Amino acid sequence: MRVSRQRQDRLVAILLRDGGWMTAAALADLLGVTPRSVRSYVTAVNARVPDHPVIASGPAGYRAHPTGAALLRERDQPPQSAPRDRLHRLIHALIDADDGLDVYETADAFHVSEATLESDLARVRALVREGGELSLDRSGPRIALVGTELARRRLLSSLAHDEMEDGAFDVEALRRVAGSTSVPAEAFGRFKSALAAELGDLGYFVNEFAVADVTLHVSIAVDRASQGRALETVHGTPPAEQERLAEVVGRLAEAALGVTLGRGDRMHLASLLLTRVVVPGAGAVGTAGVDPVVDAAVRAAVARVSNEYLVALGRDEFVERLALHVQNLAHRAREQAWSRNPLTRSLKTTYPMIFEVAVSIAGELSERLGMSIRDDEIAYIAMHVGGELERERRAETRLTATIVCPGYYELHELLRSSITRSLGQAVEVTEVVTRVDPDWKAIDTDLVLTTIEPPTPSESTVRIRPFLTDGDVERVMQAAARIRRGRRLSRLRAELERYFDAGAFVRGLDDALGEEGIIRALGALLVERGVIDDAYVEGAIERERMSSTAFTDALAVPHALRMTASRTAIAIGIADPSVAWGDGRVQVVALAAFSESDREAFQTVFEQFVEVFGERENVQRIIRRGTDFTGFLDELVAIIGR
């Protein structure tokens, strides 16, 4: 049996993201295969780069070798017979063939059977149907792609972006999939740098991801124009700002790429730029230039979410910058020119609460502005939200500390200065004790940093040297992290014991039910107990359609955006083996129903629950030992309390 190339690549991506050792069983759960298949994938991956191991094997399982993975990307050119690559080749052929293709001749040229090609064509139909701008016309053995040149370019861009996974943004790989290789990558690198620099000089806020994305579209435009397929039509009279950016793109393309783009291509690329950049100066004069409807929608969404989630997002500068971003987003939605975000997965996994706030904002904007907002676009909103909340977060996570340093000239002052300089973001020194016999029991700060031995060691007391060393700094940071984590998990433990119900626990979720079926099954258990109604279940399904709630590789937390439960409760479903969810697979599904009176608990439970299940060892332990509700709760509480 031929090993799946796509699953091999997914295996490498998982190992690179994790960075440590993973067992075959854990990898099998994530891939939805057997441990035996994982071992086959490892063998096949290493065979693709025989002179350098890509995946190392050991007693603890498997680990990716970064150098080997880089060589894999450099050297490995997948055969065109591989399904995904054959599909890309077929789409390119259809896009380039003005008169269509002969099915029999194309099957011969691809060295596949006619049945295989017909299967590939069915996949092409699904892709073009999803985009809604193109169609496949069939007349006997001939098949043709029907649609505008702009729609064809969007399909090429979509193919390239679908290659992005787990935060990877390999511009050269994207260009290769898009079929745009007529100009060397180095030239596009020069173009991208020059474009970013000139946009900055013109006063634009430069989003590096957006500039790279526009560079990809420039690459496609160059290739299509060189084939005589330039965009010639310019509708109406473009605004002066678009004309200015069109001149910039055209001039830089000629200087860096040696290509002269026509007016239609220049104006199209300028339009893409306008939907991806923000003028910082606009924020200085409020939301001037922003559509009043967009401005009102953003302010309403921010106000509701701030109240719902008890977060501080009302600062004018934040709202104005977000409104500018949303206006660009609305333009992208109209043009179907979506912007991809390679950080989507890591934002969702690492900052689930921030991402959830962004989903809620996106949901409100969708209703008010009548547009759908994709996961990648939600991630950009999450970046705005995260930046705004970071200052508040830093203040909340800083711990107080007392320095115990017997007085000797200005030694204690020097030590305080060193601690403030090295640990100021994590620790705030509120008191300095210079006695050799301090009243240890009277010290009530989070940490005690002492140069003398305390009478009774404790987790909050850290012995340091009079002249602070790197080792001292590291020990203090570790102690601070333990205290912060302990407090969070203690709160979580108290909350979870209130919210779980033995009657809302299911082991053995059926993969055939799908996401919505599982949500309905778990929701029915809470409906029976009077916690929620059917409308809440439908709300959780609607929330899932907006953006997958698989916040880690093992856990999904479906829930509605509105906190309408009569009381807060969580229904748990255990899947062994894992079930498909979003783009991956999970082993635990926690349907969370929150009430209005427990808004503060939402943050505690939601974020820390995700943290517990973000550690692979925790998941495996709970799955293995949580054979019933009592066992599940015992293991969860034990993990939290350790």
Automatic annotation (TrEMBL):
InterPro entries: BglG_antiterminators, PRD, PRD_sf, PTrfase/Anion_transptr, PTS_EIIA_type-2_dom, WH-like_DNA-bd_sf
Residues in PTS EIIA type-2 domain copies: 498-642
Gene3D superfamilies xrefs: Mannitol-specific EII, Chain A, PRD domain, Winged helix-like DNA-binding domain superfamily/Winged helix DNA-binding domain
Ranges of residues in domain PRD: 289-395
Keywords: Repeat
Claim: Chaperone is one of the keywords in the record: no
UniProt key word Glycosyltransferase: no
PROSITE patterns on file: PRD_2, PTS_EIIA_TYPE_2
GO biological process: regulation of DNA-templated transcription
Protein name: Transcriptional antiterminator
Species annotation: Microbacterium barkeri
